[in-house]
Every structure is written in C-alpha cells, then in structure tokens.
Amino acid sequence: MSSVPLTVPADLDDLPQPYLLFLGDVTESGFAKTAFGLRDWATERCVGQWSCGAAIHTGLPTVTPGEAWAMGARGLVIGVASPGGSIPEHWIEALVEALEAGLDLVSGMHTRLSSIAPLADTARRLGRRLIDVRVPPSGLPVGTGRPRTGRRLLTVGTDCAVGKKYTALALAKALAGQGDAVDFRASGQTGILIAGRGVPMDAVVADFAAGAAERLSPDAPGAHWDIVEGQGSLFHPAYAGVSLALLHGTQPDAFVVCHQPDRPHMLGYPDFALPDVTEVIELTVRLGQRTNPRIRCVGVAFDTSRLGADDALARMAAESARLGLPVADPLRGGDTFAALVDAVRTVSP
Hints:
By secondary structure, this protein is of the alpha/beta class. Helices cover about 30% and strands about 15% of the residues. A 6-stranded parallel beta sheet has the order 7-8-6-9-10-11, with helices on both faces. α1 (about 35-40) runs parallel beside α6, α3 packs parallel to α4 (about 115-125) and α7 packs across α8. The longest helix has 15 residues, at about 310-325. The radius of gyration is 20 Å and the shape is globular. It starts with 18 loop residues before the first strand and ends with a helix.
C-alpha cells in the first residue's frame, strides 16, 4: 500500500483519533505547545503521552505506543513545535516504533513525514498513514486589501507561545456562550488539530500570506465574529513576517495583546527582551490601519500560569490601571475575563 501524506483534513473525522502525544526530547514547555494545546482543548481525544527523554510532562499518563493502541489510540501526534519545524534524526526510531504498534503519524512540523525514508518505508509496508497538517491549501491568492463584511478580532503577542491560541479559543467560547455568532479561525498546526480546519500561516509562501489570511477570515454577516489565532510577534527577529501578514490580511476591527509578564526574554532568543505592551499596541494600530482604519486594542491577555493567584491578580490590576484597558488571564477566568469579553462585544459591526 502506498503511503500518501494528507494535507489539512477538511473534517476531524479524517484524523486518526484518539491521540498519543509525542514530546520528543524537549526541555522547554514553550516548544511543546501542540501537546499542551491538545491536552487543554481536546482532552477527550488524548489517551496519554510518550517521549524519548523529554524533561516536561503534560500530566497525561505516560504510555508506550503499544499500550496506547490497546487503550484505543489510533494516531501519534508530534506534540512539539521546535524552531524551524524539523524532525531530529534521533526521533526516527521512536516514530517507527509507533507505526509498528499500529498508530498513524500526525505532524505539524515543516519537515514532511513522507520525506523521511524510514518512516515512508515503514508506513508503506504496514499500510499506515503519514499526515502532515502544516500544508497550506493550493491556489492561494495574493492579498487584495479589500474590506470584508463581519467583525474580526486578532490575538497578537509580545512573543511566541504567550497565549494567542488559548486566548482566541477562550474568547470564541465565551462569545458563543453569550449567543454571538462566532468562529475560531486557526492559523497554526495546533489550532488546526483542535478545530479541524484552518491555514498554517507559517508554511505559506510569503507573497501569498496576506491573501491566505484573507481566505482564512472571509466575508460574513455583519454581527458575526471571526476570532483569529495570531502567530509570532511583530517584534520577533525571526517570525515578524507571518505576524504582519495576518494583521494585514485579517483586517481586524479589534485585537488583544497576549503577554507572559514573568518571561525575561523572547523564547529561545535570550538577546532579545520582550517589548512593552504599549509598544505592541502602538505598532499594531499603526500597521493595522493600512487595511482597517478602525482597528483598536480592546484589552490584554496575560499568561500567569507560573504565578500564584495573588501575584497574578495584582499584576493584572496594575497593568489594567496603567493601560486603561481590561487585563485578564483567560484560563483563570473570573471578573477580569468577563470584562475583557464585554470589551470585545462593544465593537460595532
């Protein structure tokens, strides 16, 4: 049987679920955001985790591929998003073991699974599937800058892995809970695995990135919300390009700045300090006005997962007073998050 890599599935039923989450040998939780995202937003589809020496833990049971198969798992998801999106050679033995145990492989890395000979050969021999979700759709146009109907919110960040996806998912869930018409629009591999659809923006050829963002958030009824998952940061030395394409292409009416207040520098870039939230607001407005003159910041989302409750509340209150905007941790919820949701809902169609 020939193994053919799939593009982004049109439906979640196309993915081999439930999942075993593979953590490789990562030592920094920020590089395992795919595994943590699936754990938090698709818990019912995850049976456990497995690694080849990882120093982090999702809190799920640690099981081998054979044990995961016996528990009902049908796919192994590479839960790591390493810089550059490559699959290290020393992971191959573990991935082959998963195929031999009966699991299909699902990857959000830039490296195509089928380009790795031992995986392709094993999958072909055993009739397993190699599924790459970081594959952009064909026929993407260049951006037009044409205004579109509907309301849009983009989450933007001071860095990578500061909660842009979690904030977008939490806001979409909250708006739906209040009866608003809303869609979460995934722009990265983890969001696509959660939602079952989307565009992996960092895999799109640069000339077509703004056009891809336009397609990601099409015309909609006036009161409808598209909550778009942001990528990277306008201040990032490596990934600012995809951030700008999303900003121009989605033409957001509103944006939320996502920030981890206790992070000393950009993840993996110790020579680059995080920008101040006010810098992010000012630059986002300035650049975003190119395609939507009405763009405005409606609040800030803090990732306070490493802070105690009292410290987190104090930092959010101080930042809210400084900025004159609601500041909340979407995962902590409470009155501060309710205020952020209210601020989003004040944006006119």
